[in-house]
Each structure stands twice: as C-alpha cells, then as structure tokens.
Amino acid sequence: MQITDDLQKLLDVLPSEIRQPLEQHPDKDRLVEVVMDLGRLPEARFATQAEYLSQIPVSREQLNYCIERVGHFGGDNRAGLERTLHRISAIRNRSGEIIGLTLRVGRAVFGTIGMIRDLVETGQSILMLGRPGVGKTTALREIARVLADELQKRVVIIDTSNEIAGDGDVPHPAIGRARRMQVARPELQHQVMIEAVENHMPEVIVIDEIGTELEAMAARTIAERGVQLVGTAHGNRIENLIKNPTLSDLVGGIQAVTLGDEEARRRGSQKTVLERKAPPTFEIAVEMLERQRWVVHEQVADMVDNLLRGRQPNPQVRTITDAGEVTITRELPQAPTPMRSPSTGGGYAASLDTPGRPTGWRTSGQMMPLPSQPRSLRGQDLRVTSTALNSPRTLPFGSSSGIRDVTNAGDLSELGPRSLSNDFEQMLDQSWHQSELLSDGSFAGPNGEDLPLQVYPYGISSQQLDQVIRVLNLPVVLTKDMDSADAVLALRSHVKNHSKLRHIAKARHVPIHAIKANTVSQITRALRRLLDMDDPSNPDVAELSLFTTTGNEDEIEALEEARLAVEQIVIPKGQPVELLPRSAKVRKMQHELVEHYRLKSDSFGEEPNRRLRIYPA
Questions:
Q1: Is the pTM of this model over 0.70?
Q2: Per the record, which residues fall in region Disordered (predicted)?
C-alpha cells in the first residue's frame, strides 16, 4: 500500500513548543491526531498509545495561533487545510468561543480496498459500517478513485465536511478523476445528493456519514434511479442499523406484519411479526471491524430476513495476511446445545424454542437413505451400512464405531468364526450403552443426521409430542425453524391439502412423515420410525404413562385392564374381549392403547354402561 499524508503541513499549524516534540518523535508517521484543550496538557495520540507533548497547559494564545492558520470553521465546527486531507475540529463553550481543537491526520492510502475490489466492480451499492477511526473515509476515498480512474465511471462525491477530497476549491489528487460537490451546511446534504443526480448525470454517488432520515430517503431515491451508491454509516454491526429507526431504511426498513392463521402455524410464530418493509437501498454491506478484518454481507435482503426470523447469518470474513494476500472465510453461527431435562434422568427435553442450523447430511442439501451392502460370511448374511450393523433388536438406533472394526479388517469372507464372534460381541456390548452415547449428542441418526433429531411439527399436538419424547426419553428436539429441521411430522390430511408445505419441504430437502391421526400411538410410531427403532413384527411393550393425561389411579387401572386383555387374550388366543364400562375420556385412552398394538376396537352400549370391545388382528 502507498500512503500519502502531507504531515508537515499539519505540523506547521501548531505552535513551536508543541510542533518540535512531534517533528522529533520516532513514531510520527503513525500519528492519528493532536488534541489541544484550554488549560490542559497537549496530547498526541498514536495508533496504540497517547503521549503528552508538553508539561505546560494549552493557553488561549496557542489556540488562537492554530485558528489563524486554519481555514473557516463551518456549521459542523470543522475546518481543513487546502489541498490536504487533514481535519481540524473545534470545541466551543456556551458563548461560541473555541476552547479546544482536535487536529486529525488525513492520509490517502492507495490499495486499501483490495479486500472488496471484486464487490466494487459488480456495480452494486455498498454500505460501509464501522466505529469512528476504523478507516471508513479512507476506504471511501480509494473506492471513488478506483471507480473513476480504473473502471472509467462518472463518479460524484458529496463531500459535506471536505473530509473525502480535502479543503479548498481544488480537490485532493487522491480521488483521481472523481468530481466533488461541497455542501454549504450539513443539514443540506440530502438536497445536494438529489441535485447531483439531476444536474451532473453520475453513474456512482459517494456519500460519507449518512446520519439523518432525510439523507436515508435521498439515498433510496438515488438507488431507485439506477445509480450505484457507495456510502458510510456509524455502527459496528448491521444489527445496530436494523434497530436504528432513523437509518433502518438503508437495509429495507422494518415493519410489523399480521400473519394469517395458516402462515403463523407454518412458521410456528406469533401472528404479529417483524418483517423487512422494502428492498434495501444497499445490496452489499461491509462491517469494518478492524483495519485488516472486514465482514461482508453479499445479500443484505436475505441477511435482514434471517435476523428478523431469529436465524444467525454466516457472512464472509475477509482478512489480509502479513504477505498482503486476502483470505476469505465464513463466520459460521454456533449450533444451539439441546437442554437436558432434570425430570427425565438426563434425557433430552423437547422445546419449541430451539432454533438451530441443519447438521449431518442435511447441510449438503441431500437427505438420502444409506445404501445397504449385503456381504456373505460362512453362510450368514450381514447387512452392513456406513452407519450401523442394522439389527433393530440388538442395536437400536445403529452403532457406527463397532462396524468400523469389521470393515477395516479386510474382506469379511476371510474372517474366521472367532474374529466374527469377537467383533459382534464388541458391538453388542457397545449397544447396551447406547443411551449414554446419545446423551452427548455425538451420534448419527438413520440418515446421517446428528442426534438429537430436529423435528418440525405441523398440525400435531405439542402436548402429546412432549409427552411421548419425555416418557420414552427419545433423542428428539422440536423446532419452529424449517431450515434447521431434519424431518417434518404432520397430519396426513394437512399434507394432502396444503401444497405449500410440500413445496417448502421439497425445496429444503426435508422429508415429510405423515400420520393418520393426532394420537399418542401414531405419534410414538412415527418418532420411532424416524429414529429407525420401529419393528412392526415385534410391538414394544406399552408405556401406560404415555396414554394417560392426569396419571390418576382410575386411568392407570383402565389402561392396565386393556393391556392385559390384549397381551393375554386377544393376541395369543385370537379372541375378542369386552372391557368394563368407562367414561368417554378413559375409553379414548384405551382406544389409543389398543391402536399401539395395531389392533382395532369399538365402543358399544349406552351410557353409563358404554364400554370397549377389542378385536384380534
């Protein structure tokens, strides 16, 4: 990089007792500013430190000496030195007299925009964000020169404080062929912006420090006329801009929107949400966190939408190495850690407020079942996949660590009986500790997803879902965010009648698992099928606590009666059974329990003697 600062012209403004220590200072090339306050010691500020220049406080005569050699102070209390980029700012007392000066060194740094040169050449509007002193104006000046000299564009700079092109009628050479329009008073900047477009036919408008609502509106007007905008605004991150009602229009503006019932249900949100009001004025935003580290948002519209919906963006992070090379990385958001419920012995607690990013194979945009590779070994068939030895009765959920020992040992046909037995025993031992492996979230699901599985419920009772997950201690977390979901669990009628749900799931490569009814048994079977635990030929022992709402003795007794009837009479003997009369609420629980065994049941009789009849398969 080539740096031009004309430092001596600024030092000539200072009194000799302050100028001489600076001229002899070894780090004067790194000087940032000189501060002179009446009655206080003069101070020189460098990039990493500050030093006093004299042990004698600043007098009024010294202040007047500087003021006489500086140009006129405008309405923003700023002045400059002609044909330089230095800025002198004044502090006044209540009567308007100057009692303090800040003499800031202005430097033209050629080559400073190497990190975003590709973005400048796209022709899209760019907004530069950052704290004061991070180099926004320096970058703006270099962008104007590159656009005018190297890309041969008509560039007009709106220079409100003469900070971009320097003081005086002739602009500083650092802006190249770009033209500069001065502003009489800071409050007229928005008018000059419109005037520049109407009178001088620019292709690019460069603006420093957009700070008022009128200036934000003028910027939108210019952008809608097809002119490229390059501007700066104060604020560390773009989130600060969204929360700023004065400047939020630069990124599209924010408004409250009332959603319809169907859309609110699909999003899993409240009916009143915040959304972007209009297309952003600036298509690209650059956060200048440090001089050599910038964060780039290539699509401001998408980034604002994600922030308003509670998703963390993953922007580019561009840095410059010591060798001068630009490196581009991605700032990935941290995935949320599922909370454990103390009431379930360390199992996963279901939560509807747990957004996250897709994990496992979902991140690649593909979710396909793993192919089975049959191998034969001494007359025995083994179905080996990349995740598990798929035997539901001995290895629920699958076990990946043991199968690596077998496949890495070479051809399966060459293993002897002892080797096979040892490996199988090892995998079997590991399967007994499956719940411990799942508890740290480091296991893989049937399609390669990281457990716990992120499930997006649609039209399913959240109370029943929570109950099933809690009682069975399943590694499942409910999510409101379709983007973070590994699967959608929905009613069959909803899937059939709502093509929008199918379209969104297809676009995001999320499989839909439909159930016929909103019952505990259907939900249980669907979740176990998602986790590759469901074996239709071997129904699981029913957990009675799944089917009861209050857990009182009458409900448990009625459910136990139905369970014994099914397991001891209907299934083994193939005979129908009639149960004792129960209330409608309890009969509904018994119906769901019978459905768990994949049997049919009917209610018959008149109240209060209405009762359940269970039929064999």
A1: no
A2: 390-410
Count Cβ atoms within 10 A of the Cβ of residue 77 and give its class: 0-12 exposed, 13-18 middle, 19 or more buried. middle
Return the DSSP state at 323.
Answer: T
Measure the CA–CA gap between 4 and 112, rounded to whole angstroms.
12
Per-residue pLDDT of 306-359, as tens digits, reads 888 877 788 899 998 888 788 888 866 544 433 333 333 343 333 333 344 444
Distance CA 362, CA 181 (A): 53
Helix, strand, or coil (residue 367)? coil
CB-count burial class (<10 Å; 0-12, 13-18, 19+) for 68: exposed
List CB contacts of 527: < 8 A, sequence separation 6 or more. Answer: 455, 468, 469, 472, 474, 476, 489
Where on the phi/psi map is residue 464: left (φ > 0), alpha (ψ -120 to 50), or beta?
A: alpha
| Cα dihedral 27/28/32/34 (nearest 10) | 120
Side chain identity at 94, as an amino acid letter?
R
510: Cα within 13 Å, side-chain hemisphere = 26
Least Cα distance to 276 among 299, 291, 254, 245 occurs for 254
- Confirm if 80 and 164 have CB atoms less than 8 A apart: no
| Element containing residue 553 per DSSP (H, E) | helix 553-565
d(CA 566, CA 389): 33
Q: What is the pLDDT of residue 282?
A: 95
Amino acid 258 reads T
* DSSP letter (8 states) at residue 348: B
Asked if 183 and 159 count as a contact pair (C-beta separation under 8 A), the reply is yes
* Ordered DSSP codes for 433-481: THHHHHHTT--B-TTSPBSSEEEEEESS-HHHHHHHHHHHT-SEEE-S-
Residue labelled with tokens 């590694």 = 475
Nearest to 223 by CA among 291, 176, 278, 305: 278
The type of residue at 341 is S
What is the phi/psi pair of residue 501, to 5°?
-65, -45
Cα torsion at 567, 570, 573, 577 (round to 10°)?
A: 120
Q: Give the closest residue to 399 by CA, choosing from 347, 443, 451.
A: 443
Instruction: Kindly provide the residue ranges of all beta strands, DSSP E only, lying in 542-594, ordered along the sequence.
Output: 577-578
User: Tens digits of per-residue pLDDT, 527-581?
Assistant: 877 777 655 554 554 566 666 666 677 777 788 888 888 888 888 888 888 888 8
Rg over CA atoms, the chain:
36
Write down the H helix ranges in 473-518. Answer: 492-497, 499-507
- Dihedral of the CA atoms 194, 197, 202, 206 (nearest 10)? 10
Q: Cβ-count burial of 48 within 10 angstroms (0-12 exposed, 13-18 middle, 19+ buried)?
A: exposed
Residue 138 makes CB contacts below 8 A (sequence gap 6+) with 107, 108, 109, 112
Looking up tokens 């390669």 gives 448
Question: Hey, which bits of 322-402 come out as E strands?
Answer: 326-330, 373-377, 380-384
Please classify residue 252 by burial: count the beta carbons closer than 10 Å to its beta carbon, then call 0-12 exposed, 13-18 middle and 19+ buried: buried
Q: Which of 451, 514, 534 is nearest to 486 (CA)?
A: 451
Q: Which of 144, 130, 156 is nearest to 233 (CA)?
A: 130
Q: How far apart are CA 293 and CA 317, in angstroms?
A: 7
Q: How do beta strands 155-159 and 284-290 pair?
A: unpaired
Q: Which residues pair with 444 in a beta bridge?
A: 450
From CA 60, how far away is CA 296, in angstroms rounded? 47
